[in-house]
Amino acid sequence: MVDKMVFESYGTQKHYKSHVESTTYLLRPIKYSAPDNIISNNIGTNIHTDKSFLTILRQTEVNGLEVQLKNGEWISVDVPPGSFVVMSGDAYQAWSNGRIHAARHQVIMKEDKERYCLALFSFNHGTTNIPKELVDSDHPLQFNPFDNFGLVHFYLNSATQMSESSAKAYCGVNVEF
């Protein structure tokens, strides 16, 4: 449903069916251990962006997710019980020609309880092209066609893990193949 809303909002509906047909999902249960000392913030995950198109999170009552705003400030995401968090990843940033930004986030453990969540990641098989509808004089082409799993492999096997954008490092127009 989220993908459909995105495609419709950008006038790219004609690409929606092929996008859905090439999408695969990874459901991952995640456990964050309770910190040894709750006085200091304990990092559950380092700062990162997901390499997926979308990530949908469902967590238990223990919060800890923090998202970085455009101005660089970090905010805690207090998720009401029974709610989901939807975040865009690097693949959506590349597909949208930079119009959608990948959510930089981390988990900080501030409670003396374990944190559990389920993360559903969506990935596309094959080559993903940037829709022509998203390239114009105000939005020149920023990304080359890319392979979503190639992006994941690139991230895991390169020194770009701490870079601002894995997508730009992997398939940005200034990247030579």
UniProtKB/TrEMBL annotation:
GO molecular function annotations of the record: dioxygenase activity
Keywords carried by this UniProt record: Dioxygenase, Oxidoreductase
Stretches that traverse the bilayer: none
Pfam families: 2OG-FeII_Oxy (PF03171)
Superkingdom assignment: Eukaryota
Domain Fe2OG dioxygenase positions: 22-126
InterPro entries for this protein: IPNS-like_FE2OG_OXY, IPNS-like_sf, Iron_ascorbate_oxido_reductase, Oxoglu/Fe-dep_dioxygenase_dom
Gene3D superfamilies linked: B-lactam Antibiotic, Isopenicillin N Synthase, Chain (2.60.120.330)
Presence of keyword Calcium: no
Name recorded for this polypeptide: Probable 2-oxoglutarate-dependent dioxygenase AOP1
Organism: Olea europaea subsp. europaea
